[in-house]
Amino acid sequence: MKKIYLHPLPVRIWHWVNAISFIVLIVTGLQIRYREILGLMKFREAVDIHNIFGFILIFNFFIWLVFYIVSGKIKIYIPPLNLKKFVMGSLKQARYYGYGILMGEPNPHHSTPDNKFNPMQQMAYLAIMLLLIPLQLLSGLLLWDAKRFSDFISLAGGIKIVDTVHVFLFLFFMSFLFVHIYLATLGHTATAHIKAMFTGYEELEEEHGH
Ligand code: HEM
Q1: How far apart are CA 129 and CA 42, in angstroms?
Q2: Confidence of residue 51 (pLDDT cuts 50, 70, 90)
Q3: How many helices (H) and strands (E) does the chain have?
Q4: What is the CA radius of gyration of the chain?
Q5: What separation in Å is there between the alpha carbon of 12 and the centre of ligand 1?
Q6: What is the pLDDT of residues 193-205, one digit of tens each?
Q7: How remote is the CA of residue 18 from the centroid of ligand 1, in Å?
Q8: pLDDT tens-digit profile of 21-49?
Q9: How far apart are CA 27 and CA 153, in angstroms?
Q10: Domains in the chain, ordered, with CATH?
């Protein structure tokens, strides 16, 4: 087994604070929305916890942003600008997940610290980190104090629009989580990638020439 240092400490801290916060926000969000059906906690408690973790998520996002911008590593998130390279790389990766993996073929992408993500990950993670999470945080912030932010809410098209954006993004993140966790189990063992997100080190099987 060869070990490669893939996830620097700030990324690991960001990732797990992010994951825990998302889960807490999903549970409390559901409790807020379905207060009559779910009896996990009092409505007020659900709102308070949702707000606290919303602010933790906002603060945490800046850990990710500052780390990636200051270190210059943000480029690992940028998909190949050559369209052909991007499309072919994505197709190769999709073929692997849909077929190659079932035939015992090796993963066509070999992660290194400077080329960590395959093109599908780059596209998904870039959209999530620079568009969808910021939009979710912003819509949440506006809904947190709708009176204070009433001018911004009007600018965005009214509270119904802001609320719809927040709920649609919730649906997206729910679906993302299922796919993300499934893909996270596809290392050389089911827990290899997940362990690496804790230790920083990804273990590679050398016989595959990684
Ligand atoms: C309990 C749930 C989660 C598990 C088990 C998990 C697992 C993992 C693992 C194993 C990796 C490293 C492999 C890779 O880079 O793809 C990773 C990376 C990543 N995950 Fe998660 N994740 C979870 C929740 C989330 C959530 C909720 C989000 C965002 C909404 C997220 C966003 C990301 C991003 C952006 C990366 C790349 C980080 C980087 O290296 O810069 N994850 N996750």
Answers
A1: 32
A2: very high
A3: 8, 2
A4: 19
A5: 9
A6: 999 999 999 988 7
A7: 9
A8: 999 999 999 999 999 999 999 999 999 99
A9: 25
A10: 2-208 (1.20.950.20)
Characterize 176-193 residue by residue with b for buried, 16 or more Cβ atoms within 10 angstroms of its Cβ, and e for exposed: eeeeeeeeeeebeeeebb
Say which amino acid occupies 154.
S
Give the contacts of 169 (CB within 8 A, at least 6 positions apart).
132, 135, 136, 139
* Cβ-proximal residues to 23 (8 Å cutoff; 6+ apart), any chain: none
Q: What is the pLDDT of residues 81-109, one digit of tens each?
A: 999 999 999 999 999 999 999 999 999 99
What are the pocket residues of ligand 1 if the criterion is a CB atom closer than 6 Å to any ligand atom?
7, 11, 15, 18-19, 22, 116, 121, 125, 128-129, 173, 177, 180-181, 184, 193-194, 197
DSSP per-residue letters across 53-105: HHHHHHHHHHHHHHHHHHSSGGGGGSPPSSHHHHHHHHHHHHHHHHTGGGGTP
| Closest to 112 (Cα-Cα) out of 84, 75, 87, 82 | 75
